[in-house]
Amino acid sequence: APEEWRERFDAMIAADERIEPRDRMPDDYRRTLIRQIAQHAHSEIIGMQPEGNWITRAPSLKRKAVLIAKVQDEAGHGLYLYSAAESLGVDRAELLDLLHEGRQRYSSIFNYPTLTWADVGAIGWLVDGAAITNQVPLCRCSYGPYARAMVRICKEESFHQRQGFECLYVLARGTDAQKAMAQDAVNRWYWPSLMMFGPPDAESPHTARSMAWKIKRFTNDELRQKFVDIIVPQAEVLGLTLPDPDLRWNPERGHYDHGPIDWEEFKQVLKGNGPCNRQRLEHRRAAHEKGAWVREAARAHAAKHAARTER
Ligand code: ACO
């Protein structure tokens, strides 16, 4: 019967079972996953740029080694995620073309500049902290390959978050200039990190559908709230302030209230008008073109290998 597979799919989602590449799935489910996983993969590789900017200027050998490891981890996350997307029947070369043509998105957060060394700390603490808050529930995503890719990614992200926190902790206990640099970085990254979770639930076109499919386990606003509740006490430990005068504990809700987010800024960044959108995409396209010979060599090697095993 034509609807038998559909009933089976719905039953699997209801029973919290994982959907695997061999299972038949609704076209919209597949399309939603391709969009989200591709956007996620693109974010990982574009995300190498803001921090990569500080590798040559890291203040010590230890900081440099940590930062290189971290940026390499982001490249690896991109690779697992492109592989997860490919299990849905798309090709990574095609996805990269869509990114380069500006037809698929990457996270808004990576369109902001890294002005000082303290930005490396603020990105680790706030940006990777927000990423983990969003990604831990994705380990329970209904699509198996995406959920499994998230397990290792989350472990690595928590190392990134810890290194950022520690970097800021040291700066906040350094000279007055170092402390001011740490505070300035937190001031600039706080609001954009809250925007990472996406538009408010009432304006999020995909949330309800993705929650019903168990792709998303929490709404954008729920995760944003979780994140704010985590970072307020951490900021106290750091001895830094979050640049939000409306931030206060709400005993009735059992959560911190935060001030209004500038959604106009978010919309502008999504439209391509953030401070670094153009630079990020240009740099990515140039890196892709410079890597053409590597892809060509890999293809030639694979063809040679295939011919040899055929014999
Ligand atoms: N940056 C860029 N685009 C965004 C962002 C953001 N921070 N948040 C939402 N959007 C886009 C959505 O892709 C969607 O685009 P579309 O309408 O063109 O398809 C639109 O804004 C509306 O948003 P939602 O309906 O809320 O979309 P969705 O249900 O996909 O939720 C979210 C957005 C929460 C980002 C989700 O896709 C997700 O969890 N993705 C996986 C995590 C991820 O991509 N992280 C990358 C940054 S973390 C890191 O790499 C270190």
Automatic annotation (TrEMBL):
This is Ring-1,2-phenylacetyl-CoA epoxidase subunit PaaA. It comes from the Bacteria. GO terms for molecular function: phenylacetyl-CoA 1,2-epoxidase activity. NCBIfam families: PA_CoA_Oxy1. Its EC number is 1.14.13.149. The keyword Oxidoreductase applies. GO terms for biological process: phenylacetate catabolic process. Keywords: Oxidoreductase. Signal peptide: none annotated. InterPro entries: Aromatic_CoA_ox/epox, Ferritin-like, Ferritin-like_SF, PaaA, PaaA_PaaC.
